[in-house]
Amino acid sequence: MGFVWIIASRYLRSKRRLSFITLVSLLASGGVFVGVAALTIVLSVMNGFEDQVQRRIAGTNAHVAVLSADDRPVQPSDSLLSTIRRAAPDAAVAPFVYGKVMVASRGSVDGMVLKGVDPAAESRVTDIMSHLTPAGHPLDSGDLPGIGLGEELAVRLRVAVGDVILISLPSEEPGGIFGGVPRV
């Protein structure tokens, strides 16, 4: 028997062979064992969950986004692309639009934040396309351009696959938000 086992058995068993003290010692040791095991398992599960959440969130957004200071669209140009290439030669670039819009369907009107991407270019930058569940129809199958909606937004708008929705943005026209005609 090793030195550690000799010390452990001395403190876990009583000298006079009192079974009650031995039972209490074993129950206390078992309680500590179960508590430490439960804590270790919970921490392992939570660390794995945290890693998954971070990977999914980080994977659906680009590491760097080029935006204008006044919320106007940044027009892609060769000089902008060459500046990005000089700063990060291995970077992939994908254009996107991002802003507040109003969405109208036959059943409802709602406000939302829209992020529009080019699926082919976006797949080089993020893995957001792997997190989308196709509804059975390709996005470019009709006369109108397609859109991917989240399940909750589709329920709020009361739309299904194949329905038409109208997306309008606030106008830059004189007269403000109520006087101008929204761009569509």
Strand order of the largest sheet: 2-1-3
Distance between the termini: 83 Å
- Can you tell me the overall shape? elongated
Helical content (DSSP H or I, runs of 4+)? 40-55%
- Please state the structural category: alpha+beta
What's the β-strand tally? 3
- Estimated radius of gyration: 30 Å
Individual helix count: 6
Please outline the major beta sheet: 3 strands, antiparallel
Strand content: 5-15%
Average pLDDT figure: 79
Number of domains: 2
Low-confidence stretches: 174-184
Output the helix-strand order: HHHEEHHEH
Molecular structure report:
By secondary structure, the protein is of the alpha+beta class. The protein has 2 domains: 3-60; 94-179, no CATH class. The protein has helices at 3-12, 19-60, 78-87, 119-125, 151-157, 176-179, and strands at residues 96-104, 109-117, 166-168. The longest helix is centred in the first third of the chain and has 42 residues, at 19-60. It is elongated. Mean pLDDT is 79; it is low at 174-184.
